[in-house]
Amino acid sequence: MSSLQALVLSCSLKRSPAKSSSELIGRELLTALADHDVEGDLVRVADHDVRFGVSVDEGAGDEWPALREKVLAADILIVSTPIWMGQPASVCKMVLERLDAELSEKDDEGRPLIYGKVAVVGVVGNEDGAHHVTAEVFQALNDVGFTIPAAAATYWVGEAMGSVDYNEAGPKPDTTGATTKTAAANAAHLARLLRNEQYGDMS
Questions:
Q1: Which of 141, 76, 139, 133 lies closest to 102 in space, CA to CA?
Q2: Which residues of the chain carry a pLDDT beneath 50?
Q3: Which of 8, 31, 59, 65 has CB 3.0 to 4.6 Å from 78, enough for a Cys bridge?
Q4: Which domains, ranges and CATH numbers included, belong to the chain?
């Protein structure tokens, strides 16, 4: 049986090669997943011309279809996002809106194509709101068919109105680091179970 595959959609507002805390936490999740024989890849969404919309393809020049193929090929989707104004970043919201199209995309047994895939969330910011952002993102992902493991979110929030970002804060092995390892372990466990026994026929 082939290895489980994970994909991080990093929803930083910054294009590469600018440093990104949401990319860092996404890569940390991939590192933790590798301990459970999960291979992974990371895409910084802002590096691609993803159009606003709620379809699988918004026409000429839209780069979402290529990213969508990566989502469909993955067993585990990780959405990592900064907090802005107490909310998921606009890039994250755009990704969730594009995933809304998956409600209409079914397999031969009537299940949404997303069924059987696991979702994890990583959140970073310099203000309160990590739990709120996690709740918003998980609700949207679950709506389109992703399965949420136990303790499937990891986050770091710096001092209110502070200037230190996660990528400047240094390792936090006993807090965010431990939570990241737990999220990865639970995600790998659930993804392996779902690969071996998919949800039932819905047709």
A1: 141
A2: none
A3: 8
A4: 4-196 (3.40.50.360)
